[in-house]
Every structure is written in C-alpha cells, then in structure tokens.
Amino acid sequence: MLLTDHERASLVFEELLQKSDKINTAVFKKIAGIPFVYLHPEESTTQKDVEEVLKWCASKAMKGKRLTLAMSYVRKNQALYVYRVRFLVPQRKMFCCGNLCDDCIRFTDP
Questions:
Q1: 15: which strand partners?
Q2: What is the DSSP letter of 94?
Q3: CATH classification (class only), 5-88
Q4: For residue 104, how many other CB atoms are within 10 A of its CB?
Q5: How far apart are CA 39 and CA 23, in angstroms?
Q6: In this structure, what DSSP letter does residue 32 have?
Q7: Which has the closest alpha carbon to 49: 72, 77, 22, 25?
Q8: pLDDT per residue rounded down to tens, the chain (110 residues)
Q9: Which pLDDT value is given to residue 106?
Q10: Could you give the CA distance from residue 103 to residue 51 in angstroms, rounded to a whole number?
Q11: CA–CA gap between residue 70 and residue 85 (Å, rounded)
C-alpha cells in the first residue's frame, strides 16, 4: 500500500510522540474530520515543554516533504493537554492569475 507524504508524516509524528520521554500517553482522535491529540505529559512537564515536543516531532515527520504544520492549543483538563495538529499540503496553482507570482504556473513544466 502506497502512502502519501501527508499520511507518512502523520504516522511518523504519532510514532515519535509515543516514544517521547516527556509524554506518558498520546491519544489521537479525529472528530468531524479534524485531528486532535490528547497528551498526558510526565509530571513537572510544562505546557511550553509539551509544545516543544510537539513541534520537534512534527519537524522530524515533515523533513524532506512539502508540508507545513498547523497546531493550536485547545484546552487543558487536569493533567491532559488537547491540541489540534494538522499537516497541511501546499496547494499548487492551476492557472495564471496575472499577478506576476513567483510560483506562476507559466514557469513550470507540465
């Protein structure tokens, strides 16, 4: 089965997050098509530490791929942090809009 870059990055991200020494458990859920991650960090781990771990894992997962990270904090409930984490695939222009863009379709080979 062939996976897209997006799917591969998501799998690597989940694997790295599960192996992190600052995170006890990470549960991934899709609600209404939007991916969320529920994190139980190690004791004495701050929200800043949690976000650094998320960004590090995401950067390793995106390496060599044309993806960007969209991450937003949702809430904290006792020792549980909830984040919305998405890997975005850049859109490719399909026509020339006439604005002299650097990535204009006129400058690419079909």
A1: none
A2: -
A3: alpha beta
A4: 14
A5: 7
A6: T
A7: 22
A8: 688 888 889 999 999 999 999 999 999 999 988 889 999 998 888 899 999 999 999 999 999 888 888 999 999 988 899 999 998 877 766 677 888 777 777 766 55
A9: 73
A10: 32
A11: 6
